[in-house]
Amino acid sequence: MKVLGIESSCDETGVAVYCSEKGLLGHKVNSQIDLFTEYGGVIPEIAARDHSVKIIKLLEKLLSELNLSLENIDLIAYTVGPGLIGSLMVGETVAKTIAKTKSIEILPIHHLEGHILAPGLEDKDVPPPYLCLLVSGGHTQIIDCKSYGDYTIIGETIDDACGEAFDKVGKLLNLEYPGGPKVSKLADSGDSSRFKFPRALTKDRNYNFSFSGLKTSVLYTVNDSDESDYADIAASFQEAVIDVLTKKVAWALEDTGHQRLICSGGVAANKNLRERLQLLSAESNIEVLYPSLEFCTDNAAMIAYAGYIRKKFNLKSHQTNFARPRWPLGELYA
Ligand code: KG4
Ligand code: ZN
What pLDDT score does 105 carry? Predict the structure, then answer.
């Protein structure tokens, strides 16, 4: 079975083909990051327009490189939500048009299920049960994954997502959007113990996060500093975020009894976070798995793979067949 994956939920246009026998045959991502540098964030109208300009060419290029045509595709899996409505609708229109004209089966996929299953996409299946730490520009969640299609959010941010906090701090430090990778790079040359930033919601045992107070605290510190302090601010901020993430994950692992942790989403690319999770892994004998860097950020390979898993295990269908911008993972079947 060959599954065509289509992703367009935010500012990355992605297409991929996953094969049940041979694994991922290929994928392509067009990032719109350059379009948004001058604005410091994604402009939904521009994102949707760019998806519509790029997606067909990207698909044609992928299929021709793989020496495949739409006739070889058995299933189309596309991101139906959550995300930006205009962006989602571009991917959905392409997916539905191909499905209808070529009589191919189509499966709508929840974007976060793509991130949750992403580590299984490369060399071996990685079946649940496991705990997933999902850290991206839009989400910060700890998810108890009991089996394929059965995910319970046991903790999440009550305000900003962790990637969003990285991006906002990047802006404060005059770094280009998206700030996450640049803050992390700047932090490499800084002293992470210089500024004591708050670690919110860590006094009581719970798995929720809050990053808005941290961001405000960084703002006050930046206002009282000059550029020579920026590396120390970046390092101290990053340390605060990672302290909180690892503390909550350690609690969640202990309480759920999971022996395996999946770390996914754009912030999973952060090398200091990986180092700390590696320490946790060594201390508590937990297996920690990440998708490769290219599959940590948004891509269609994880969507194609989620479609393959849904089909293989004959999972219950979603009620959602039309672009759904707001769609909490807890309402997967509602
Ligand atoms: O999953 P993703 O590609 O898009 C969604 O939000 O769905 O994640 C993008 C986020 C951005 O906020 C970006 O700044 C952050 O991931 N990010 C990082 C790093 N690489 C990407 N944050 C911290 N350190 C990094 N190395
Ligand atoms: Zn994402």
Answer: 98
| pLDDT value, residue 306 | 98
Distances (CA, A) of 250 to 255, 259, 285, 297, 317: 9, 11, 11, 24, 33
**Which two three-digit tokens encode residue 231?**
């590396």
Q: For ligand 1, what atom is nearest to the CA of residue 296?
A: 1
| 248, containing H or E segment | helix 230-256
Q: What is the Cα–Cα distance from 157 to 88, expressed in whole angstroms?
A: 24
Confidence of residue 40 (pLDDT cuts 50, 70, 90): confident
Instruction: Report the CATH architecture of 128-290.
Output: 2-Layer Sandwich (3.30)
77 neighbors 107 (Cβ within 8 angstroms) = yes
The predicted-structure confidence for 174-227, as pLDDT tens digits, reads as follows 999 999 999 999 999 999 999 999 999 999 999 999 999 999 999 999 999 999
Q: What ranges do the domains of the chain cover?
A: 2-120+295-331, 128-290
Query: Do 128-290 and 2-120+295-331 fall under one CATH topology?
Result: yes
Cα 196 to averaged position of ligand 2 atoms, centre (Å): 30
- Per-residue pLDDT band for 268 (boundaries 50, 70, 90) equals very high
Question: Ligand 2 centre from 297 Cα, in Å?
Answer: 6
Could you confirm whether domain 2-120+295-331 is CATH 3.30.420.40?
Answer: yes
Pocket of ligand 1 (CB under 6 A): 10, 136-138, 163-164, 166-167, 178-181, 184, 265-267, 269-270, 297-298
pLDDT band at 29 (very low <50, low <70, confident <90, very high): very high
CA distance 316 to 306: 13
Within 8 A by CB and 6+ apart from 68, the residues are 2, 17, 25
Closest by alpha carbon to 237, among 262, 200, 268, 263?
Answer: 200
| DSSP classification of residue 157 | B
| Distance, C-alpha 306 to centroid of its chain | 14
